[in-house]
C-alpha cells in the first residue's frame, strides 16, 4: 500500500468513526500543514532472535534499533541491504460546528500494516493519530489569529493564512470547539543490495 493510500485510508477511517457525516460536512477548516521526509540507509547488523537492527546513521555512526516481536521477517534482512524510512506528519484544525459537544478532550488511534511472514524484503507501515478537542479563547480579526485552549488550560495561537478561511473568522465565537488532528505515518521498506 502506498503512503498516500494509507493517508487516505486513515482520513476515511477518521470520518467513518464520527457519529454524524452531517457534522463533518459543516465543519470549517481553520488550518492544515503536512510535512514529509525520507531517508535511505544501510543495514550494518541484524539479530533476528533479539529483534535488533543496526543501521548506518549520519556521518557513518551506528544507530541501534530495537524492534518488537512483531517484526517477523528480520531473518530475511541482510547486512548491506538498503532500508528506506519515510515519515509524514500532518496537523489539521477544524471548527467543530456542534458547539454543545462538551468539555475539551483527547482521543488516540494507532494501526499498522506489515508484510506477510516470509516476505523477502521486510517492511511495513504504522500510523498514530491524536485528536484533541480545544476551545476558542480569543479571536483577533485584524491579525487573523485564533487562540485555542487545550484540556489542561494551556493556550496556543494559530495564524490563519488562507484568505477564504480568514473571511470566515468573523463567524467564530469564543467558547466554540476546535478539533485538531495530528497524524504521523511511518513507512519502512527494504531491498537487498545487489
Q: What is the secondary structure topology, with strand pairs?
A:
Layout: H1 3-16, H2 21-26, E1 28-47, E2 52-56, E3 62-66, E4 82-96, E5 106-114, E6 124-140, E7 145-149, E8 155-159, H3 163-166, E9 177-191
Antiparallel strand pairs: 1-2, 1-4, 2-3, 4-9, 5-6, 6-7, 6-9, 7-8
Note the main sheet. 9 strands, antiparallel
Number of strands: 9
Radius of gyration from the CA trace?
21 Å
Low-confidence stretches: 1-26
What is the count of DSSP helices, taking H or I runs of 4+ residues? 3
Description:
Keywords: Signal. Residues 1-25 form the signal peptide. Residues 103-125 are annotated as: Disordered. This is DUF5666 domain-containing protein. The chain has one domain (3-35, 88-191). It has three helices and nine strands, in the order ααββββββββαβ. It has helices spanning 3-16, 21-26, 163-166; strands spanning 28-47, 52-56, 62-66, 82-96, 106-114, 124-140, 145-149, 155-159, 177-191. Strands 1, 2, 3, 4, 5, 6, 7, 8 and 9 form a nine-stranded antiparallel β-sheet that branches. The two termini are 24 Å apart.
